[in-house]
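Lab notes, practical 5.
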Amino acid sequence: MQEETPDSVTDEAISVADRNAAEEWKVVAKKAIKWLCDTREEFIADDIHIAMGKYYPDVKTHNTSALGSLMRMASKNNWCEKSGRYAQSQRISTHKKNLPVWKSLLYLKARV
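Output from the prediction step:
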């Protein structure tokens, strides 16, 4: 049996959240992330939820923690990377939690 580490526990939690999320929600979230990477230099998770709510208000999942796996996917696909900075969430459900600011790696390419 492999020893648990903070990273392995995080990886497992992200994996479980992803497996349990509604497939339609994941598809829409992925589209929102790509759109933000194409249209903004930086963004936070709040911006993904705002975009999803505006364009796909009826698409829901029971736990939005699955966004973590999608952000990892976006990072691995070189759509964006963590900037090293944090911004306070304005969503009520997050209780003003500090969220990573994501830096788009596509924004400038889309402008050329």
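Observations recorded by the TA: Helices lie at 6-20, 23-39, 45-55, 67-76, 107-111. The two ends are 51 Å apart (CA to CA).
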